Amino acid sequence: MALLRVRHCRALLYCRRAPPRCPACGGDLRAAGLAAAPVRLRCPFRHGHGQPHAFLIRPSRGTFLHDYRGHCDLHVGITNSRGLVYNYDQEGVHRAASGWEQCISIPLVQPDMWELLQHWDNLLEEFSLEEAWLPHRYEEQQHNCYTFALAFVNRVRQARGRAALSKGEFTQRFLLPHTSEASRYLALQQQLQHSDVYVVPLAEQQHHSGAGSHSLLE
Ligand SMILES: [Zn+2]
């Protein structure tokens, strides 16, 4: 169901359906004009198998919208050109054609990188056959799904003459903008399970927008 945001007086109102009156000031929202028109928030989750050449994140069990409660194990993978998700766990590398239907998706390749696009599937397949990704090498903290996906990203970067990214750099620069958006969306979803309208005073918006930004991957 859609999530809407309405801006009125000194507040942002989040709701499923715009109320007739502003719960912050009591004013008539229908008379408030374009400035108070509801804006539909973009759902941050994507069907992962329809996202080629991407870094995908999903909960290890269940889905973000139904099961995620702030802290749970996450699993990551990389898609090839056909949306097959290469992901590493204690059983080795999987090439999944299902199970990634609701993901945070981070595109890795720009459309003008045509040479990389041509070789992507072979690079990913060959990389996943390397000895480092045999089942017995798996280690929950230090050599896991994230190690696999980041090592592939770095392999591609280095082949293009770019510096490898540390886990911290990758998380900060590429993942956090997406995971914080997803955290905010899920937090609003949860608020709206208990009330019809969730009011955020504009003065708190700054603080609010950073809430939960470290809970997904740190
Ligand atoms: Zn108001």
UniProtKB/TrEMBL annotation:
InterPro entries registered for this protein in UniProt: MKRN2OS-like, MKRN2OS-like_C, MKRN2OS-like_N
Which Pfam families does the record associate with it? DUF4796_C, DUF4796_N
Tell me which residues make up the MKRN2 opposite strand protein-like C-terminal domain.
38-192
The UniProt transmembrane annotation reads none
- Per the database record, which ranges form the MKRN2 opposite strand protein-like N-terminal domain? 3-29
This chain belongs to the protein called MKRN2 opposite strand
Source organism per entry reads: Taeniopygia guttata
Highest taxon listed in the record's lineage? Eukaryota
